Amino acid sequence: MTGLLEYFEKNPETSVVIFAGKGGLGKTTCSAALSYYMATVQQRRVLCFSTDPQASLSDIFERDLFGKGEIEIVPNLFVVEIDADKRIKEYQEEVKRKILDMYKLDKLPEEVEEYIESASAEPAMYESATYDAMAELVARGEYDLYVFDMPPFGHGVRMVAMAEILAKWVDKITEAREEARKYEAVAATLRGKRVEEDELLKELLEIKKKMSFFTELLTDSRKTAFFMVLVPEKMAILDTERALEMFEALGIRMSGVVVNQVYPRELLDDPKTPEFLRNKVVSQQKYLEEIKEKFGKYIVAVIPAFDREPKGFEMLKLVSEHLMKSRIEL
Amino acid sequence: MPLIGSEKKEKKGEGGIKGVLYGMAVHGSVTAFLKTRMYMEHLFMLMTLGDMLGFPIIPPYYSLKLLPYVVPNIKAWKMRMFRERDFTDLITS
Q1: A229 in the same domain as A119
Q2: Chain B partners of A180 at a C-beta cutoff of 8 Å?
Q3: Phi-psi domain of A264 (left: phi exceeds 0; alpha: psi -120 through 50; beta: other)
Q4: B71 and A109: CB-CB below 8 Å?
Q5: Residues in chain B closer than 8 A to A200 (CB atoms)
Q6: E strands present in chain A
Q7: Using one digit for the tens of pLDDT, what is the confidence trace for B45-71?
Q8: How many domains does chain A have?
Q9: Of the candidates A192, A69, A78, A197, the residue with the CA atom closest to the CA atom of residue A133
Q10: Least CB-CB distance to B64: which of A119, A184, A199?
């Protein structure tokens, strides 16, 4: 195990990195540390994107980033913390304005207004909006590396599953639309009229293009890396096992496991180590054995527990050194 | 002035013949095609905006993107979907 640096050397085409895992284990820290390293040491143009509604990139970078768009924190390092609620609001307004403009109306028909409101309250709306934001950023292709800090495991993986469902749905309705167009075309020709261009079909194809580009990228293991972050605790191990199964079911290859918050084993050798800490280290050692046994070949990096919160550039640099060139042997 | 009148008449006559020919030859099939087209349009709307009638739809996000294009069809669609049907439909529709 030699850290993420070796992974990038072996997979030079990697342009998307996704950190997934249970909440509070250090996904955001890893995302920030990797982004920081790539931007400062390798001078790559990096976008660090948080899809977590409880995003804490603002905390780590010690700057308010929430819903502010792409912000360049240090040269080459751009950070986005998406405010999905705000995005949905803007999107709603955009749809309403479009209808008013298209049909030269002063006011929306009541049923349309109601529909827009109720559709936006749907829980799936939130995920779709986040996903769409991700897809849009990647489709623009302005960065060398995209680092996504996924929300806690459950819907982090589901987001990828949703991408496939969405793509299939768009495929189906595009088909239905094209079929309907055929009949219209025949009728128009018989009446000696010209077929009008179908704006809706154009919009659908646009959505489809964006979505399939992103889905293909996510499932291409040469270009996209998925890392699971876990700590030496029972719950985290169970969650990682479940995630591995889900990844397999989705046909996604997990690129590696990052073990975080590891207490130094040497504490056991020091007779002055207090009982409380000693117990913690012993318990961690037990779970580290289990991790080695279960995910041995997946482990790419081990990050120690720090005596301070991982905040600010100095701490990020320290974390990134462990993440990129892991020195701790399990 | 009378020239314009006669011109108008001639045009009308021409259109009339065209109309008769159209009616005899293809009006039936055009109507049929347009009807099929309407059914498909309504089916499409059900797939994209079905939640407006209570059918759950997976990604409402993209439904909203398509909504502006079908606004004029919503009334007719709802009426068709909610209409009561009986055997006389077979004769009249």
Answers
A1: no
A2: 37, 40-41, 43-44
A3: beta
A4: yes
A5: 66, 69-70
A6: 16-20, 46-50, 71-74, 77-81, 145-149, 224-230, 256-262, 299-304
A7: 887 777 777 666 667 788 888 889 888
A8: 2
A9: A69
A10: A119
- Check whether residue A237 and residue A275 sit in a common domain: yes
pTM for this prediction? 0.79
From A253, A251, A250, select the one nearest A228 (Cα to Cα): A253
| In contact, A109 and B74? CB cutoff 8 Å | yes
Look at residue A207 and tell me if it is in a domain.
no
pLDDT digits (tens, 9 = 90+) for A103-120: 999 999 998 999 899 888
Residues of chain B by 3-state class (helix, strand, coil), percent to 5: 85, 0, 15
For residue A303, the 8-state DSSP code is E
Q: Does B7 touch chain A (CB under 8 A)?
A: no
- Inspect the interface and report whether the beta carbons of A125 and B33 lie closer than 8 Å: no
Task: Determine the residue of chain B that is closest to A126 in CA distance.
Answer: B61
Q: Are residues A115 and A26 in the same domain?
A: no
- Clarify whether residues A92 and A77 are in a common domain: no
Domain assignment present for residue A199? The answer is no
Q: Which domain holds residue A43?
A: 11-85+137-155+224-311
B60 to A177: CB separation less than 8 angstroms, yes or no: no
Optimal mutation site among A85, A98, A195, interface B, most CBs of chain B within 10 A: A98
Beta-carbon count within 10 A of B90 CB: 8
Cβ neighbours of B73 in A, within 8 Å: none
Q: Do residues A38 and A44 touch, judged by C-beta distance below 8 A?
A: yes
Clarify whether residues A106 and A250 are in a common domain: no
Q: Does the beta carbon of B50 lie under 8 angstroms from any beta carbon of chain A? A: no
Specify whether A151 is located in the same domain as A244.
yes
pLDDT 10s digits, A125-134: 887 888 888 8
Whether residue B60 and residue A125 make contact (CB cut-off 8 A), yes or no, is yes
Mutation target vs B (from A101, A103, A105, A112; most B CBs, 10 A cutoff): A112
Do A64 and A34 sit in the same domain of this protein? Answer: yes
